[in-house]
Amino acid sequence: MLNVLSIDAGMIEWSRAQFALTAIYHWLFVPLTLGLAVIMGIAETCYYRTKKPFWKDAAKFWQKLFGVNFAMGVATGIILEFEFGTNWSNYSWFVGDIFGAPLAVEGIVAFFMESTFVAVMFFGWKKVSAGFHLAATWLTGLGATISAWWILVANAWMQCPVGCEFNPDTMRNEMVSFAEVALSPFAVDKFCHTVISAWIIGAVFVAAVCCWYLLKGREQKLAVESLKIAGIVGLVASFGAALTGHQSAARVAEVQPMKLAAMEALYNGGVDQSLTGIALINPFAQPDYEQEAEAPMKIAVPYALSILATNDPHGYVAGINDILNGYTKPDGTQEPSVEEKIERGKKAIEALANYRQAKKEGASDSIVNCQLSMINSNMQYFGYGYVKDKHDLVPFVPINFYAFRVMVGVGCLLILFFMVVLFFVYKKDITAAPKWLHWSAIVMVPLAYIASECGWLVAEFGRQPWTIQDMLPTWASVSNLQSSSVMITFFIFLVLFTTMLAVEINILLKQIKKGPEL
Amino acid sequence: MKKDGFWHRAFDLYYDGFRSMTLGKVLWAVILIKLFIIFVVLKLFFFPNFLKENAEEGRESEYVAEELINRVEELKD
Fold it and tell me: Distance (Å, rounded) from C-alpha A40 to C-alpha A101?
């Protein structure tokens, strides 16, 4: 399909790859920042309450590691904005200020708040009162979390565009309700799930550092006391992630049913749907969902998908074929087939062309208004007008299917891990625990990161091909550039990011080896 | 500026803080190198604003409209 467009087909894939690379790299730093903020806040609160110098040293140590990660992560997200302007210019213009507003608020309020209080946190130990310092530490974390809020609001809007109206004169979506955009239920769910999962990363990281000390037989008090904090934060956050994950899945079922169908490899939906534990899906090829009744070798939990998606064991969940061919929703309303949506999308785009032509030629108000009304009545399917083959609307099933299972599988493993850690910390002697437990904490760090990145894979691959759900597919969003230029920057980034990551890991490891300054 | 005034104390916080940095100096060096690469090298040489370069100033909407309408026309071919 893409071959018929004058745009370079490779441009889309390279732009997507570059964006994914940058986002994955950025997401290595953000969750650790958010997670360590909680741990260091709790450690300093312990100091504030007990006045024991040990807690001050512990708080300072975790703040130091937070500082290294914070410094390395600064501005890595800015590159994503450059990419919007260069590679995704149609998209950037089309989203208008809806996307810009949350990012601007993030930059002005949250980032400055974070930056101000981070200075007090690092420089203010002997300069401000203990209470003010504690407040600064928590506000640093809060600032980072508010930053995440606005970024996720922008992301959520792409997945579920609300609070906007398309202006055919400016060719931009204009915000009609800031509250609807900022407090969209999709954004709230995304924020809760993402931030809570970041706390898990922080807890796993702290647990790994502590267990490394225990393996080396040093910093035992710091290790044991910090493991108590990490264990509790990690366990609570793991349960929280499961709960918010369920909430997110229910929202996805409502707003992006194709994403849910892809991550479940659900070809034909219905009521009483079971949740696939595992199935044999070729990881390198799109399954033949039109011919196969279900994924082969499927082992499933009865009713669990219906519960996940609808909170009802008998709830209806749409499969890929249902979504492509149209289906009746549980409330009796009919979801149109993709063919119908394509027709309506084409009508919207044709009306847009006619509207602009009519305005240019100074046509009468009635003609202009007629076209405007045609645009508005079909706007919700605008993006479908760019779809030639309905199968282009099915995201790559294997990546969604396996990424979802890795995320959930590691999440369950983490619950078990934190339970075992807490058992040893409170009921046994963690310093004398078997070495495998200490090593498993270290192994959990890359696993937790993989789970976290898999969450993003599901969120972003699952919504393909849409850059804005139902409004703009990737091939309409991308700039009319040659892919070679994007390819070059992709490899520059690869080298740059790998170098930066190596520098960060090196500095972090040195500081961990050095230990707390007593 | 009063020594016990807010602005003096705020200045002092930053001045003393920056002066007594150890690890912070390395981190600042990394941050500055990174910002230079991002804002000078990448932004200037690799990430021009596509619309600014390809659309007339103030007529970006025309350009995007043509792009979005023409891409559908091409699909019909």
Answer: 31
